[in-house]
Design goal:
Blueprint (H helix, E strand, L loop, with lengths): L16 H37 L3 H30 L7 H8 L3 H21 L1 H10 L3 H7 L4 H12 L3 H28 L3 H36 L2 H4 L9
Helix pairs in contact: 1-2, 1-9, 2-3, 2-4, 2-6, 2-9, 4-5, 4-6, 4-7, 5-8, 6-7, 8-9
Length: 247
């Protein structure tokens, strides 16, 4: 559970794109020896399942859920890593990280499926609503794995945390989207030039073992900084009011 006290510095409440990404990269560098193996082997399992299911029909839908579970797992692991660093705890072992990540996994997976579906539909039909949802739900996965408020309450909680900082959060989301787009293009290039499916899966998993933790660490850093900002607000202003804007 989240502790309610706060001794956050101004830097720890800084939502600028550069400082958020810098903190995420620093966290990855500090804990790469546990993050990379977890994500690499998890990605291997997900890739194997996706290949067995195929890209059509029920295989596509099940694969979507499996992907959501993968990202929920990585997010849960990333949040424990960030907690350890924030509270200056000894580094958690791989076993400890997985043990902490598993309990919130079912609810976080469902949150991920719903959020991805809604954002995808919004982006396909209208760009602006899609970007709006990406902004107000930017920390819905961190909320789901740390605070565990329930599937639907997680969306409202994320919106409440983002409220008042929408443009800064959007900047982080857009740069993260650019990073993911570049990594997707690189993965496609590796897939086309790989010598067979096994090599393709190995290279893809290796790429995921770097990109996925950084992605979730960025969202985790964003969550903790929004949480620190919320703790500095007057108590009455923290309550969500009808008509409040995310920005």
């Amino acid at each position: 559970m989240v502790r309610r006290g706060s001794n956050a510095t101004g830097m720890e409440r800084d939502l600028s794109v550069g400082t958020v990404f810098s903190a995420a990269f620093s966290a990855f560098a500090a804990r790469a020896r546990v993050l990379v193996p977890i994500v690499f082997f998890s990605s291997l399992v997900v890739s194997a399942i996706s290949r067995l299911l195929g890209p059509e029909g029920i295989g596509f839908l099940v694969g979507w859920v499996v992907d959501a579970a993968f990202f929920a797992l990585v997010q849960a692991v990333a949040m424990t890593v960030l907690r350890d660093l924030r509270e200056r705890r000894p580094a958690s072992s791989i076993g400890d990280l997985l043990a902490t990540a598993l309990p919130p996994l079912p609810a976080a997976t469902l949150v991920g499926v719903l959020a991805l579906a809604a954002v995808t539909v919004a982006l396909v039909f209208l760009i602006v609503p899609g970007l709006y949802l990406m902004t107000i739900w930017a920390v819905v996965l961190p909320v789901a794995v740390v605070e565990r408020p329930g599937v639907f309450d997680a969306f409202g909680r994320s919106r409440g945390l983002v409220r008042g900082n929408g443009w800064k959060v959007l900047g982080v989301v857009l740069l993260l989207g650019l990073l993911l787009a570049v990594s997707a293009a690189l993965a496609l290039l590796l897939h086309r030039h790989a010598a067979g499916p096994v090599v393709s899966i190995l290279f893809g998993s290796l790429l995921s073992s770097v990109i996925a933790p950084i992605q979730m660490l960025v969202l985790g850093v964003l969550y903790f900084r929004l949480l620190d900002i919320e703790r500095e607000r007057p108590a009455e202003s923290v309550l969500e009011q009808p008509g409040d804007s995310a920005s």
